[in-house]
Design a protein that fits this description.
The complex is a heterodimer of chains A (about 350) and B (about 350). Chain A has one domain: P-loop containing nucleotide triphosphate hydrolases (Rossmann fold, 3-Layer(aba) Sandwich), CATH 3.40.50.300. Helices cover about 35% and strands about 20% of the residues of chain A. Chain A has twelve helices and ten strands. In chain A, the strands form two sheets. In chain A, strands 6-7-8-3-9-10 form a six-stranded mixed β-sheet, sandwiched between helices. A four-stranded antiparallel β-sheet of chain A has the order 2-1-4-5. Classes of the chains: A alpha/beta (about 350), B alpha/beta (about 350). The complex binds adenosine-5'-triphosphate (2 copies), iron/sulfur cluster and magnesium ion (2 copies).
């Protein structure tokens, strides 16, 4: 089922627009910003990959979009627009409605999204009945169709099974069915394959890609795995210490990185140093959010850093053509020197 | 080259039965899980032997048997030619045990949070009555930290730094072999590179031998001399690194290579592998891979394939020659599209 109407409209307006988003957490050691001035769009049928190291702020950004920040974390600035309408200032009840109806969610551990006490059929029909104008028999049929669509064999027979009766990969398929059954416009998938084996991971990625394309859904795919990004994403957003440091088409960013951090990250993968005894490495580690250096947060690890990098303000994406948050970006053709 | 580690016919069965009362009430039989099944391999001195496989394939269990944390159900492990489970000379057993050290995946869980780094590193040596004067400081510097870090507690370090502390602790015993169980799986890519480089450097400086356990093919390709591929507790293929990557001969290895996401291929449309790893308590008959194998024939469901040699590879598959042919045919098909 394609939805031309919705896609047509979405071509003009992105499904999701995040504008200068700031998330703050007050701590004893002062306020930290796990998301600091992040902006991006996702269009219908597009997969935006969000990558970065552990603690870079990927999940925090996704949780802010769906209004699921755990207090004391809170949105302290910026706007979030779904189909052109602001959702960051909605009341909790309104937001819950929008979330259920328009945004599907897939997390790393399928068990967090499934109720262990309900059959998967009940969970699917409940969601469908709540959000779509259909009756019980139709909802049941749609639930079966949704399970067939994600590749659950003998869906009609398995609809009365409980989550624990499925393997890890099958559970994640059920979660995807659940995320998509109310026909959302946006899906946020936070490390959806990290807990799975490579062979099952490949299945889940292929499934996500197919459904996203067929249904024209916008997908935010959060992962720390560059391989998953290369495989699945159309565009990629690289995060570092709460900031968006590079944004662009996936092939461009991964093969011709403009930001020194992205370039370093790609060069330090074992594949990039194939046949060399030592791997290229970036010195040091990502700073904690309460101990950020002044200026560009990457400057202590950066071989291109100059004085300008060590003093505020930190560069934004506009410092390099909306592509890289860097005062001294790599030139467009400089990369691919990795091997 | 002589073998430093020699593993023969290794099998480990776990009793995973429900408690007695449940079994009686629910009329359940006892249940056994074969985590490792008839695995044999040799690790020459000063080489890196890698075990790869998906979760539950038995990698960690083999590692634990080799260091003596888990006893085998059947089969033997010889280290420096000595079978530690049979050797009666206690002093000899102690000496060889300390020659084999292990580092684990989770650098957070494997360091006692209440101990200072100095105590963590020196403890194994101290408990054997060895000299620990300045030992921690020297080892910390060797792994790229500072001697002053010896006075700190584990929580003051990042994941990569903690893994360096674990490595320092392993080195304290002056080992010949280190069993590394997913040493960088919990680390970020940029930090992983630092730790892998450290391990390569130490190997050269100290002439170490590694049994290197990982599920990450790119890491294994970088580190290993010889690679063994495990599936459901069985060794299905073993080959020198370059041979394995140039021409995987077992259909499972081929599937694993095809499924692994790559950073140099974009938006590829491949048919993902079929099925999932079966229940290890009731593994398939014959070749454990046969229900998912595109090449399976009737014999595969009946007869467990023996390890045999095919062009410098050890492979346990009835149809290895056919798998090789198919591998090259598919490669040739892909090539013109480039
Ligand atoms: N209550 C809190 N107080 C202080 N800092 C916090 C708190 N909760 C989260 N953080 C910080 O917020 C940052 C963002 O975390 P987030 O979960 O978004 O990271 P991530 O990129 O998703 O990482 P991962 O790959 O580990 O999932 C982290 O650096 C974390 O230390
Ligand atoms: N103490 C135990 N009791 C019962 N079963 C066990 C025990 N230890 C391991 N197993 C089982 O043995 C099998 C092999 O486990 P093992 O931990 O060796 O796998 P692995 O290859 O290291 O997997 P992973 O990649 O998940 O670490 C699994 O099915 C596991 O559940
Ligand atoms: S702004 Fe400066 S320090 Fe930051 S990445 Fe660019 S060159 Fe490096
Ligand atoms: Mg996260
Ligand atoms: Mg393991």
């Amino acid at each position: 089922m394609t939805r031309e109407g919705r896609q047509g409209r979405a071509n003009a307006t992105p499904v999701l627009s995040v504008r200068d988003l700031i998330v703050e957490i007050p701590t004893r050691a002062g306020t930290v910003r796990p998301t600091d001035g992040v902006s991006y769009d996702i269009r219908a049928g597009e997969i935006l990959g969000v990558v970065g190291e552990s603690g870079a702020g990927k999940s925090m950004t996704g949780n802010a979009v769906i209004g699921l920040l755990d207090p004391p974390a809170r949105i302290a600035g910026g706007e979030i627009l779904l189909n052109g309408e602001r959702i960051d200032n909605l009341s909790r009840d309104k937001l819950r409605k929008v979330r259920g109806r328009k945004i599907g969610m897939i997390f790393q551990d399928p068990l967090t999204s499934l109720n262990p006490l309900l059959t998967i059929g009940d969970q699917l029909t409940e969601t469908i009945l709540e959000h779509l104008p259909v009756g019980q028999p139709e909802a049941q049929e749609r639930a079966i169709a949704a399970l067939e669509e994600v590749g659950i064999p003998a869906a009609r027979a398995r609809i009365d099974s409980y989550p624990h009766e499925f393997s890890g990969g099958m559970r994640q398929r059920v979660v995807i069915a659940l995320a998509l059954c109310a026909e959302p416009d946006l899906v946020i998938a936070d490390e959806p394959t990290t807990a799975l084996d490579v062979s099952v991971q490949a299945q889940i990625i292929a499934l996500l890609k197919r459904l996203c394309r067929e249904k024209g859904v916008a997908v935010m795919l959060v992962t720390h795995d560059m391989g998953v990004i290369a495989e699945a994403a159309d565009r990629v957003a690289v995060m570092y210490a709460g900031r968006l440091v590079e944004l662009g088409p996936v092939r461009e960013v991964l093969t011709r990185a403009r930001h020194p951090y992205t370039a370093g990250l790609m060069a330090s993968t074992p594949l990039a140093s194939l046949g060399h005894r030592r791997l290229r490495q970036i010195p040091g580690a990502m700073p904690r959010l309460n101990a950020l250096p002044p200026g560009c947060p990457f400057n202590p690890r950066c071989e291109r850093a100059e004085d300008k990098c060590r003093q505020p303000p930190a560069p934004g994406l506009e410092a390099c053509e909306g592509r890289a948050a860097c005062w001294f970006p790599l030139t467009p053709d400089a990369e691919e020197s990795a091997a | 080259m002589t073998s430093l580690i020699s593993v023969r016919g290794l099998t480990r069965v776990f009793d995973v039965s429900k408690p007695w009362l449940n079994r009686v009430i629910e009329r359940l039989p006892r249940a056994f899980l074969t985590a490792v099944s008839d695995v044999s391999f040799e690790v020459p001195e000063k080489s890196v032997y890698a075990l790869v496989g998906e979760s539950g394939s038995g990698k960690s269990t083999i590692g634990k048997i080799v260091v003596g944390l888990v006893p085998p159900t059947e089969g033997t492990v010889e280290i420096e030619g000595v079978d530690l489970s049979r050797e009666t000379d206690a002093a000899k057993v102690d000496r060889i045990r300390s020659d084999v050290q292990m580092i684990f995946q989770d650098p957070y869980a494997s360091l006692n949070p209440r101990w200072r780094v100095r105590e963590i590193i020196a403890e194994p040596v101290k408990s054997r009555g060895g000299d620990t004067e300045g030992l921690a400081e020297r080892l910390l510097e060797q792994v790229g930290l500072s001697g002053a870090d010896a006075a700190k507690f584990p929580h003051e370090f990042s994941g990569g730094q903690r893994q360096r502390i674990c490595i320092a602790r392993a080195l304290a015993s002056n080992p010949r072999v280190i069993v590394c169980d997913e040493p960088t799986s919990a680390l970020d890519v940029s930090v992983q590179a630092q730790v892998l480089n450290l391990m390569s450097d130490l190997r050269e400086e100290l002439g170490l031998t590694y049994l290197f356990i990982s599920h990450d093919l790119t890491v294994v390709q970088h580190m290993a001399d010889v690679i063994g591929v495990l599936y459901l507790g069985r060794l299905v293929e073993e080959a020198p690194r370059d041979t394995l990557f140039a021409e995987p001969k077992h259909p499972y290895t081929q599937m694993l290579f095809a499924a692994a996401p790559r950073t140099d291929v974009f938006g590829r449309e491949v048919d993902p592998p079929k099925g999932e790893i079966p229940d290890p308590i009731n593994p398939p008959t014959g070749c454990a891979f046969h229900p998912r194998c595109p090449l399976a024939v009737e014999r595969c469901s009946r007869e467990r394939p023996e390890m045999r040699s095919v062009d410098g590879t050890r492979v346990a598959c009835h149809r290895a020659e056919e798998a090789v042919r198919r591998f090259h045919a598919e490669k040739a098909e892909d090539a013109p599209a480039e």
